[in-house]
């Protein structure tokens, strides 16, 4: 299957942003629709269509985007797009690593924007149901594009402000409460723990070792993690293991047993149980959904 990890080269490394306007058009009215390969990247992606019709696919959803429509794709989420019709398609793509924007004022919302419980894709309901939120996010994307491309004096400050305005708009437009506030997360304590988990998913991860990294007792760390992240440490690790397994499943060509071991799960029954818990389907059904998306 033709899937790859897309490298994102920031126009300004300090801002952790890449934003660009693209144009695409069929070479002839009878030509087949142009498809972009399945891919993923660490950065969250926003797409604003300005002209024409674009289709976007993830393993669980498909979107048909017309002028003025916006869609968000979460961090490391597989996706691909397709241009339909004979009209030229003009669209802006914004890639942003949100982590640098989690300052003290943002930390109450860290675990939701970092997709611990819900993929950011679930926020796309907002753009279907709330015209004001959709229009405002579209305007913000355009402003970020203009600042980064124009590079006027102070554009770094302006772009950074617009990213925060974007996050605020999502927070206030989220009528389903996916981004509810919670107790603030101490990123200085939590980041080394989350990085350790990401780096050791193929191994056995002992909570005793992680509690030492946090400088806490086993018992206190267990309570601290659940209060900070809204789920137990074990559930968090399992969620990360299955997310990695999803990407390996469609990228590596390995069999399911090898993939389970590659994400640190030796017991196959447990692997299938976890995969179905987080995806609502088996690995085979997950691949069928990927294959079925045009």
Descriptive report:
This protein has 294 residues and is α+β, with helices and mostly antiparallel strands. It contains eleven helices and ten strands. It has helices at 110-113, 124-129, 131-150, 155-173, 187-199, 207-214, 218-229, 233-251, 256-262, 268-279, 283-292, and strands at 3-5, 17-24, 34-35, 38-40, 44-51, 53-57, 62-65, 70-73, 80-84, 89-96. Helix 3 (131-150) packs antiparallel against helix 4, helix 5 packs antiparallel against helix 6 and helix 8 packs across helix 10 (268-279). The chain starts with a strand and ends with a helix. The relative contact order is 0.12.
In short:
The protein has 294 residues and is α+β, with helices and mostly antiparallel strands. It is built from 11 helices and 10 strands.
Structural class, by secondary structure, is alpha+beta
Poorly predicted ranges (pLDDT <50, ≥5 residues)?
none
| Distance linking N and C termini | 13 Å
Number of contiguous helices: 11
